[in-house]
C-alpha cells in the first residue's frame, strides 16, 4: 500500500478518487452482465448450429457414395467465392458476424449429370455454411470470454481494492487531522491560561 500524506489536500484527492471509483464501478458491472448474457446467448446459438451441422452430415452420408461416381468435379462448386468479414459491437467489444457464403453457380450439362447432383451440391453447401458459421461463432465467443475476464478483473479491483483502500485512507487522514486539531485546541487553551496567569501576576505586583 502506497504511503499517503496526512493533509487536507490528500484528503480531497482521496475523496475525489473514491467518488470516481464509485461512479465507474456500475458501468463495469453492467458491462460484465451484458457480456455474460451475450456469451450465454451465443453458446445457445452455437449448440443449435452444431446440432444442425451434425444432422446435415448424417443426411449427406446417406447418399455420399454417389459422389464417388466419375460424373463431375464438385470442388469448383463447393469453394466459396468470397469470405466476408463484418463485426458487431457488444458492450464495447467487436465480434465477428457470419454472412452466408456465396458459391459459384452450377454450370454443367443437365443431360449428362444425374438428377441428384443439384440437391447434392445444395446439401454440401449448406454444410459448408454451417461449418463456417460455427467457426465464426466460436471465434466471437472466445473474444467475449476474454473481454469478460478483463472486465471481471477490473470489477474486482474496484470492489475489493480501490474503493476499500480509498475509504480506509480517508478514515486515517480524518483521524489524523482530527487529532491535530484537538492538539492545537489544547495548546491554545494552555497558552491562553498562561497568558491569563501572567496578566494576573502582573496586576498583583
Describe the structure.
This protein is mostly helical. It has one domain (8-178): Helix Hairpins (Orthogonal Bundle). Helix content is 72%, strand content 7%. The chain contains 3 helices and 4 strands. The strands form 2 sheets. It has a two-stranded antiparallel ribbon with strand order 1-4. Strands 2-3 form a two-stranded antiparallel sheet. Strand 2 and strand 3 (93-97) form a beta hairpin. Helix 1 runs antiparallel to helix 3 (116-204). The longest helix is centred in the last third of the chain and has 89 residues, at 116-204. The protein is rod-shaped and about 135 Å long. The two termini are 60 Å apart.
Cα separation of the termini: 60 Å
Q: Round the Cα radius of gyration to an integer and report it.
A: 37 Å
The geometry reads as rod-shaped
Q: What's the level 1 CATH class?
A: Mainly Alpha
Helix content range: over 70%
Q: Uncertain runs with pLDDT below 50, 5 residues or more?
A: none
* Named CATH architecture: Orthogonal Bundle
Q: Largest beta sheet, briefly? A: 2 strands, antiparallel
How many helical elements? 3
Strand portion: 5-15%
Record field, number of beta strands = 4
- The spatial strand order of the largest sheet comes to 1-4
Mean pLDDT: 84
- List the helices and strands in order: HHEEEEH
- By secondary-structure content and strand pairing, the structural class works out as mainly alpha
The CATH topology annotation reads as Helix Hairpins
How many distinct folded domains?
1
